[in-house]
Amino acid sequence: MLKDKYFLPVPTKTCEEIFSGFGAGIKSHYERRAEVRHEPFRIFGNLYYIGDDKVCRHLIDTGDGLIMFDVGYGYNVPEIEADIRKLGFSPEDIKILIISHGHFDHFCGGNELRRKYGMKVLLSRTDTELIRERPERALMEYAYDPEEGVCWPDETISDGDEITLGNTTIKCVAAPGHTMGTTAFFFDATDGKTVKKVGYFGGVGFLTVYPEYNRRMGLPENKSALLRHTAEKLMKIPVDIMIGNHPGNNRTMEKLDYMKKHPGENPFIDKETWPLFLGELIKNTRMFEKKGF
Ligand SMILES: [Zn+2]
Ligand SMILES: [Zn+2]
């Protein structure tokens, strides 16, 4: 069995160094989109992966339509449509699109997808308000096509809310740190015989916890401590399957490779992944705070 181990990158660069290379990284992601493209696959039961190897997208088949987590960029929309069809569904089946947090790489394609298929888009109230006040907080200047604009939600979500469609109820838990309105989501996935608890921490990157960045954006400067407190809070929730916001969070691609080589085994089902990942996140936030960027 593939044993989980996590080596989240400990931030060593300054805020300026990180942001100076950020736009080029996004552009190269677009240019290499044929390489980063990935086939869609079933994680477990009614839970599917339709992201690439840079940004995650997930689908839940609720029996009464699809719930989708995150959408990526506008140029991903044709890929999303093809992937959904490959899995035996139709893009018209998407009833709800949940955006994990208010950053461009998770919502840019939402306008196009909603225009074509009319699903309801949800984002936390906090991130909606913060990016409405100061749109640069959505980091749109780094988007491949900033003209796509922010995908404003039809409804906002808050801590404790439940989203129900078909056989699935998703519990929303406020998970501030990466952004002030990042949300974590918890729900059951089923293959018809067994039920597994799924956890999705919708944003963990250090990019936006630098005090310097937050000063510039008019946001609290202690977001690293906030991220740590969030990780400590979420650690108490039992999770059988952790899904990622970016594939590195849960080693999505490594697990897929393992599944292909070991039919019948499912490395996504592992109760240790969630606490191991969060434990490392806590350790790294402490290291970050000690370094005092
Ligand atoms: Zn983000
Ligand atoms: Zn992201």
What does this protein structure show overall?
The protein has 293 residues and is an alpha/beta fold. It has one domain (15-291): 4-Layer Sandwich (Metallo-beta-lactamase, Chain A), CATH 3.60.15.10. The chain is built from 10 helices and 12 strands. The strands form 2 sheets. A 7-stranded mixed beta sheet has the order 1-2-3-4-5-6-7. Strands 8-9-10-11-12 form a 5-stranded mixed beta sheet, with no helix packed on it. Helix 8 runs antiparallel to helix 10. The mean pLDDT is 94. The chain binds zinc ion (2 copies). One zinc ion binds next to helix 4. One zinc ion binds at residues 103, 105-106, 246.
Concise synopsis of the structure shown:
The chain is an alpha/beta fold and 293 residues long. The protein is built from 10 helices and 12 strands. The mean pLDDT is 94.
What secondary-structure arrangement, pairings included, does this model have?
Blueprint (H helix, E strand, L loop, with lengths): L14 H17 L1 H4 L4 E4 L2 E3 L8 E4 L4 E4 L7 H10 L7 E5 L5 H4 L2 H8 L2 E5 H9 L21 E3 L4 E4 L2 E7 L8 E8 L4 E7 L9 H7 L5 H12 L6 E3 L8 H10 L11 H19 L2
Parallel strand pairs: 4-5, 5-6, 6-7, 11-12
Antiparallel strand pairs: 1-2, 2-3, 3-4, 8-9, 9-10, 10-11
Bound molecules: zinc ion (2 copies).
User: What strand order characterises the main sheet?
Assistant: 1-2-3-4-5-6-7
Q: State the name of the first-level CATH class.
A: Alpha Beta
Total number of domains: 1
Give the count of helical stretches.
Answer: 10
CATH superfamily: Ribonuclease Z/Hydroxyacylglutathione hydrolase-like
CATH topology: Metallo-beta-lactamase, Chain A
Largest sheet, strands/sense/barrel: 7 strands, mixed
Q: Distance between termini?
A: 39 Å
Bound molecules: zinc ion
As a percent range, the share of strand residues is 15-25%
Q: Can you tell me the CATH architecture? A: 4-Layer Sandwich
Cα-atom radius of gyration: 18 Å
Helix content, binned percent = 25-40%
Secondary-structure class: alpha/beta
Q: What series of H and E elements makes up the topology?
A: HHEEEEHEHHEHEEEEEHHEHH
Tell me how many strands there are: 12
